[in-house]
Fold each of these.
Amino acid sequence: MRRAWTRLLAMVVASVIATTLVSLGAVVGAQPKVTIVHWQHFHEGRAAALKALIPAFQGENPGITIVTDLPPYEQYFDKLLAALAAGTGPDVFQVPMGMAEQLINGGYLAPVPGSVATTAEIERRYLRWTTARFKKGGKYYGLPTDVQHLVLYINNDLAREAGLDPANPPKTWDDLIAQARKATKRDAQGNIVQAGLDTRYKWAVYTALLYQFVEGPVIDAAAKRATYDSPQGIAAWKVVEQLLRGPNAVDSPRFMPGQRKFELKRAVFYINHPVARSVIARIGPDIKYTIAPVPAIKGKRPVAPGHHWAYVVNARSKNQEAAWRWVKYLASERAVRTWMRVAGDLPSLVELLPTEPDPVVRESVKLVRPVDYVGVCDPIRNDLFEAIALTTRPVEDLVREAVQKENTCVQQALR
């Protein structure tokens, strides 16, 4: 009888121990579920790349779920700044280099932990101009993404139809104006039906000009003012006037407003970033085009204005470790290769520069002059661009008014 009780007791004890071990194993093996809210503005190519990266990351990090919000570019900054001010912003978000000082000084960004990347690693691996503005007090506050400069796209068939040779692209702004005028088509009433130069991406056109004509800073952050009302700046805006005013204009905001003229084969030349390749492939896959350097000022060295964004972590995020793990992945070699292949981005990593397939895009990196825009002031310059096109007011007056507005915008961003 005693043996039976002993065996029964042993069985009970063994069962309890086994159950306990299983329970402990479940506790040890379980990973807390974390949701990372990720914001960036919508762009076709980059949205497709992000869509490919998320499941790959989640597969390697089963305890982390990425939830994205990709508002239109026109709505993004108002939404982001309002959310950050209210303390309800996303864990991870993308911001342009011009907002770096504003967000770092405002205490909105968390510094990059050493466990993610040391200062030395960041400065060794990434192109210096893609990280410089996100450094303060020896710390970095983001990792670069959406690295871009400007190039000139040429529709080969339309160029040849106009008697131009895509293999001999315009070298100077005078060349571009002359060739674009030759390629512009009008109806019997004088309305443009084919643009010589698609100028819908206003930022690209005036930025290409400003950073070639203005030798010093375009935005003087130390003085908190814009300088493009100088004689050099006025000269740049006068080129915009040549492009958009009078009977020889090569484009107009009234021609196919809001539509992609180049991708729809209604424009011969187009200034944009390398990322535009992904959009052309989607909308105009049969377009045969040439990529050329942005025209230069006659007698001067070519300049390719450079711009980038960064992935950052909200200083108020309650999921800092998971958020930085996601940012580290987005800026990793694997991810950068995806950004390049799917979106058409330039690489942020020095080691991947030789893998850029287009020789003009690759070599133009050597010509980069980083833009020095501050804050969210682009709409002021965009409005100036459109006012030059649609009014007859003197360019000098329009520029001076715009500079006054931009000075206020810059001062608010840097206060």
Note: The longest helix spans residues 2-29.
Amino acid sequence: MLFASTVINYIDRQTLSLLAPYLKLEYHWTNSDYANIAIAFRVAYSIGQTAFGRLMDRIGTRRGLTLSVIWYSTISMLTSLATGFYSFATFRFLLGTGESANWPAASKAVSEWFPKRERALATALYDSGSSIGGAVAPFIVLWIYFRWGWRPAFMIPGTLGFLWLIVWRWLYYPPEEHPRISQPELETIVADKHESNAPQPNATRPRWRDLLRLPQTWATIVAKAFTDPVFFFITEWFPIYLVAKGIELKTGLIAVWIPFIAADVGSFFAGAASGYLIKRGWSLGAARKVPIIYGGIGMTLLIPTIFTTNLYVIAALFAVVTFTYAGFTTMANVLPSDLFGSESVASVSGLSGTGAGIGTIVAFKLIGYFSDARQATGTHAFDPIVILAGLLPLVGMILVLFLLRNTDATDQGLVRRL
């Protein structure tokens, strides 16, 4: 169910980026105009990640995700009524508000249902929905666009969330309340929670300022803030980037979906590899750091794309980048449930999402400015952006390895031991 909600989340989100080359022509937008519309989404998304993370810890995953999907599905459909820059920006802001709850809610659900040895794979499963959603979106959105125009391309995908809600409300409950869970399954889940050094659900909920004093919290924030802006560059700017490289979107469709499939494979590979290492006796912290290391190194392969306009070389390099990114971000998504008790998981996940959102807002502003300023350079308009995007995750990897460690807070039971 979490996987499906993430797929739908990303289909709704990707609609604008896929239609951007055509909407830019129709409404005479510059790259900076498009950046500002995309930033409207990110501002709401960044604020919402923290706010809804806290809300999820209060009202629970079942109710919280229900409200989120109703909201963003409705807004996705209403975007078909947009008439220009300001209305698109408003609808994107509202969409970001609703969609921001998905990851904190999913992280909380994983912490409720899965023991620590299975959390990475479970996280990889729901997180891979972003890759699948990004991969299938071009075929759905562009197919609708070329037949009926851009307004139905927003309206029709927006209905998917309401279909998902029917199944979600029927199937999902916390383990302690689920009518179909067996007693042995419930005992396994509860036993794993009691093995943790983290506070139990009846403990006092830590305040944000308490969480922000912990290096472990900052490790989760950095892991997202230094990688997600790069992936969001790919998801929201890739069609415009391909056009700048002299590649037509119709003929370059392979380059749009292959990196997303690679990211999906990368999510499962990282989750399975981390779980395998734990079963082999590795510590939790060491098993989580392996994908972080190869993720930070692998994403530097963005940089060679500045030397080519070959569609297949670009697709291959971006595929390697998204494969290794997926390993890094899967660990970033699972860290809150590894490190914190259920009363704080969604809050920490929300803080990391907000960090990623702030980084993305800054990145998008720079992308819009530099790509407009460098239009005279033709196929090299995005070169400085791509170089920086290749180096940023490497710096993030170094910082995460420094911050992700056992501290006095671990001994005090404030954070789980890695």
Note: Confidence is low (pLDDT under 50) at residues 197-202.
